[in-house]
Amino acid sequence: MNFKSIFTTVALAATTLVSNAQTDSVMMRHIFDEALVNGKCYENLHYLCKNIGQRLSGSANAQKAVDWSKKLMQDYGFDRVYLQEVMVPHWVRGAKEQGYIIDGKTKTPVALCALGMSVATPANGVTANVIEVHSLKQLDTLGEAGIKGKIVFFNRPFDERFIEQGTAYGTAGDQRNAGPGAASKYGAVAVIVRSLTSALDNYPHTGATNYGKNKPIPAAAISTIAANQLSELLKKNKSVQFYLKDNCEMLPDVLSYNVVGELTGSVNPNQIITVGGHLDSWDLAEGAHDDGTGVMQSAEVLRIFKALDYRPKHTLRAVFFMNEENGDRGGLKYAELAAKNKEEHIAAIETDEGGFTPRGFSFEKASPAFLKNINAQWKSLFETYEAGRLVEGGSGTDIGPLRETVPSVMLIGFRPDSQRYFNIHHTPNDVFENVNKRELELGAGTIASLVYLIDQHGLNF
Amino acid sequence: MNFKSIFTTVALAATTLVSNAQTDSVMMRHIFDEALVNGKCYENLHYLCKNIGQRLSGSANAQKAVDWSKKLMQDYGFDRVYLQEVMVPHWVRGAKEQGYIIDGKTKTPVALCALGMSVATPANGVTANVIEVHSLKQLDTLGEAGIKGKIVFFNRPFDERFIEQGTAYGTAGDQRNAGPGAASKYGAVAVIVRSLTSALDNYPHTGATNYGKNKPIPAAAISTIAANQLSELLKKNKSVQFYLKDNCEMLPDVLSYNVVGELTGSVNPNQIITVGGHLDSWDLAEGAHDDGTGVMQSAEVLRIFKALDYRPKHTLRAVFFMNEENGDRGGLKYAELAAKNKEEHIAAIETDEGGFTPRGFSFEKASPAFLKNINAQWKSLFETYEAGRLVEGGSGTDIGPLRETVPSVMLIGFRPDSQRYFNIHHTPNDVFENVNKRELELGAGTIASLVYLIDQHGLNF
Fold it and tell me: Which residues in chain B have their CB less than 8 angstroms from residue A442's CB?
């Protein structure tokens, strides 16, 4: 049964007191059946991971991913498929990094990788004493006297008491994001950062650092096992040194693209509901969970509606943003064009927390009244699919710039289970094999359901 | 801060309008902090999986697991630790099974394993034509004319539309449980069953079959990839044959044990709250998720209370049941002794659905009024930990027999995320490496929280 016949049935039944909620629950059941029985996002993700692979902004693979994504949306027969031009940074890692701990005559190699946007060390690397710190504030206390000429080692672990791992990441992340710049201010010669994860293993986790206005110094992440080892050695011997060699380079900006597919609204084509993730990935693996799953779910949402013959009232857009990882240029461009083209945006949903079992959504800056009402009306619909968590909270990096240019838009973050994401995030382990087909598909069904409900009822809670 | 000081603080505050819910939320926060920061279940599970390993009922490893578990609980200083004697079946797989598809002159080996409790084939195996069926009912239609002398191939896949994978397992499971007995009735010479999983891979999934009063015939599970392959070949050529050789044997029953640890109730020591899982596992791997995680969580619940210096009102029992996989003798013995010893049981909670992120609990035969009230009072407490799903539903095989002998008990199933369990369930892939530390610990915290709430407030909803 396609959606038209469902709708006819329900429309007839409506005269005998079928509520909106019943119509909605019938439609959601069909959305999930389509996602779970005929789903395409898993095989699409396989292609993206295995036939294209890593796709850092500015790379040849990023361009391949753009071309393939555009063709995918065209082949699905979306009403409009187009590219948005955007200049992106082109950082390259260069030859594999090297690093080891020097404890007297013993050199112990450690698992490490340069942070994204890091500068290179001199050709023969950097060797220096190590000062371990647990916060940026501690740098101010140490000052130049304690830091100058040293390698600063940020080693504050995740706080395990947080239930959502994203919160632990958020509260530890300043070490990687702002740590190198802050250490540079006091004359550090390099920075090494404990990988941002709860897992105790030997994967280094890359990720962008932002020097701000400070002089760039080489910066790398070391695995949590290596971080513990270094910390233990420093307790016994303060003169332990570290050797770091990396070969990063910042090349000129490159022309790249956001990839956009649309189903045109039948009633209010000028009002837009966006669902998106980012097409670029880090260079160490396949960008499976970060964020291959997100872009493939975004396309899947529109595919599901086409398969069910559902004609949306508003224009639905799947957006594959470029350059989330090290610049957010795609997100900024999308927001700039939205304002320039005087677009009306009802809602934007980002899926960039991995393709894990859905738990619900977070609504950015939602008022208590909004939360109370949306939960009263929609929570039980999502609880049928075990995704009934509708809370206030952040949305996503790509859609974030819309909050400046289209202030009326509701920004929404898709919230999957968070426990495993930061075990593989930004590591060589972010590969297709770590994605579960059903978890990915349940996420697509959950996002499509929210898009459907917004399309039918709006968000005036 | 230990629990006594928390309680004192809260007790003082109570005079100024602190509600039960606030006391409870403070205590739950401390339970989770203990589980996540000082948790021991992950390292205990490592020992059980790596130093003992597979522990099928009647095996030497099962006895090792009993001895180690008893010592673990004694070392934790539980008030009472003891064994319950129980005779268990002793089925052994024997030498590795063999199986292949015979299509003309082509022999294609397939991934397979005997079902638990299967009998052996003759020494030179069984070779026969194959009849593919999708239900037990279909056997009645085919009758002896269609079945006699053949190998029956049950090939109904999981229904992907179910959200909980346990439901898909439940509705496909008759093929493995009752299929071989039913096929034997019509003269089949052997049975092969599509592995009970959504995953398309090459792992065969074992699991018990129950012949009932029918003559036992050899029965094996084949991987889903092999099942699809065989089905495709049968479409082209009905004379395709299958060769099966297995070497199973049923030995005499063996004396084994449930392992029980208790914290004695300070107010009502004769009223018991049980939390348990099963210590035995299948023989193909380490029984990590099935059910090493469950027993380690059960002991962890009591350990957490001791660590927090929480003195329960009622007697809390951690029970490591023996023989869930192929006989349920431990569960039956526990229920028999409960009746014999005239024990009062308030609630029994089973954790046997894997060590995945907690979603909530199912309450067996809970009335609508019970569900309404328990959700009104406790759901929000659990939602803080993303485990607020409190629904009607099944509990567990081990605690199930209590419903006959202690009818007043509330039977409760711990419900973790179900999406990955049946990818590894009963396969060589059920190993420690597939358990996530935080997911396991969050489960322990969730179960301990429910035990605490029942201990404080009972279940009179």
Answer: 163, 419
Domain ranges of chain B: 3-90+252-457, 94-247
Predicted TM-score of the model (pTM): 0.94
- How far apart are the CA of B202 and the nearest CA of chain A, in angstroms? 14
Q: What average pLDDT does range B417-444 have in this prediction?
A: 97
Domain B94-247 top-level CATH class: alpha beta
Token pair of A97 as six digits: 């990094």
Q: How many CA atoms lie within 13 A of B178 on its CB side?
A: 10
pLDDT tens column, B131-148: 999 999 999 999 999 999
Band the pLDDT of B204: cuts 50, 70, 90.
very high
CB pairs under 8 A between A and B: 60
- pLDDT classification of B165: cutoffs 50, 70, 90: very high
| pLDDT over 50 (residue B380) | yes
Q: Does the beta-carbon distance from A164 to B386 stay under 8 Å?
A: yes
Beta pairing, strands B241-245 & B219-222:
unpaired
Asked if residue A402 lies in contact with residue A260, where contact means CB atoms within 8 angstroms, the answer is: no
Q: What distance in Å separates the CA atoms of residue A300 and residue B439, rounded to the nearest whole number? A: 28
The single residue listed with the structure tokens 């396609």 is A2
pLDDT for residue A257 is more than 70? yes
How far from B180 is each of A123, B117, B154, B202, B281, CA to CA, in Å? 70, 11, 9, 22, 22
Of the candidates B153, B144, B139, B221, the one whose C-alpha atom is nearest the C-alpha of residue B182 is: B139
Architecture of the domain spanning A3-91+252-457:
3-Layer(aba) Sandwich (3.40)
Q: What are the structure tokens assigned to A283, written together? A: 């260079």
Residue B11 above 80 pLDDT? no
Task: Tell me the CATH class for B3-90+252-457.
Answer: alpha beta
Cβ pair A163:B359 closer than 8 A: no
- The token pair at B245 is 């050789």
Spatial contact of A175 and A132, defined as CB atoms under 8 Å apart: no
Annotated catalytic residue within A324, A343, A353, A441: A324
